[in-house]
Write a structure and sequence with these properties.
alpha+beta; 11 strands; elongated
Length: 348
């Protein structure tokens, strides 16, 4: 049986002295003090390595939960209440006898979602988060009409980026995504009321879209050295269905007031089924679908104004809406984007 050595304590000691005395007291007599100290050093090293690895691999998880919150704020902003002044969709053309209409609709996207946080749950370091979405969309439209009926053909091209940043003095995180797409649509429109000062038109159709969607993740560790970043590419197709009602009141000879309502639904089932690259990247890609394709109201409406000079018609609703959005933006979402729509009417 091993014998044990007992020593009496005298006076206050530090934690290290107490620990060494405890080990010396409890160790078997056939084990030297040197062997015990070597064992303790190895145990401490293993403990430090375990803590470092735990923080390293856990950091992307809590970083990405913040990104989901920013994405939700973005989607809620665009699917919620908007200024009443909005440009009518490019497909809302009022038919006239033997008229050819060329429409160009352009939009610049520049939205920042911020969520400043005073203290992080990890070490009390000051943090801040932001999600910046920027992009452009160009949508030319050609409409051929008879007196009450017409057909329209629409091309659309767009490019957008998402930049997410989690600013933390210990674990700064950045993430980037991008989208490039092209689409082709066909629409029909029917004038149901042809009055002297008011026209009411029904619109219906759809669009097929092909998209190239890149998703990346970049994590910077506490030594400020970035890990290798891999961009994963998803390719998918979508279909958009539209139905609308356009009412055009002639206020002056060349000025029209245009209340409108439009139903639009984008089928993202094919896009959502393209997962399978990795759990982390797939989760970000699904969040991106909310930003790129699900951040618009299914039933949208607005009030547009048009001014015709010669054969050119300028729609001002989008510009007015941008002004009111910028002035009334919340502390969380800042929308600096704008849209412009021009029409050229030509008799066939």
């Amino acid at each position: 049986m091993p014998s044990y050595v007992d020593e009496q304590s005298s006076g206050p000691r530090s934690f290290g002295d107490s620990l060494r005395r405890f080990i010396h007291t409890c160790r078997p007599s056939n084990v030297s003090t040197f062997e015990v100290s070597v064992l303790l050093r190895h145990m401490c090293k293993a403990f430090v390595v375990a803590i470092s690895l735990s923080a390293l691999f856990a950091s992307p998880v809590w970083g990405q939960s913040g990104r989901a919150t920013e994405v939700k704020a973005y989607k809620d902003y665009y699917t919620g209440s908007r200024p009443i002044y909005q440009a009518a969709p490019v497909t809302h053309v009022v038919p006239e006898l033997n008229k050819v209409t060329y429409v160009l609709d352009a939009r610049m996207i520049d939205t920042t979602v911020t969520d400043p946080t005073s203290v992080s749950a990890y070490g009390g370091a000051p943090t801040s988060e932001s999600l910046v979405v920027k992009g452009t969309r160009v949508s030319p439209y050609l409409a051929l009409s008879l007196k009450r009926f017409g057909l329209g053909f629409n091309l659309e091209a767009g490019d957008s980026t998402i930049n997410y940043k989690y600013a933390n003095t210990s674990y700064p995180t950045t993430q980037k995504s991008s989208l490039s797409y092209r689409g082709l649509g066909i629409y029909g429109f029917l004038k149901v009321i042809d009055g002297k000062f008011v026209d009411i038109t029904l619109i219906g159709g759809g669009k097929s879209i092909n998209a190239k969607h890149k998703v990346g993740y970049e994590q910077t560790n506490y030594n400020q050295s970035p890990f290798a970043t891999t961009l994963s590419t998803y390719r998918y197709s979508l279909t958009t269905y539209d139905a609308g009602l356009n009412t055009q009141f002639q206020v002056l000879k060349s000025v029209n007031l245009i209340p409108w309502v439009n139903y639009s639904r984008t089928d993202t089932a094919n896009a959502a089924s393209q997962t399978g690259l990795s759990t982390a990247i797939d989760a970000i890609m699904i969040q991106d679908l909310d930003v790129f394709w699900r951040s618009q109201r299914v039933v949208d409406y607005g009030l547009d104004f048009s001014v015709r000079v010669g054969g050119i018609e300028v729609h001002l609703g989008g510009m007015l809406g941008s002004i009111f959005s910028s002035a009334g933006g919340s502390e969380t979402v800042k929308d600096k984007g704008f849209s412009l729509s021009l029409s050229l009417h030509q008799k066939g």
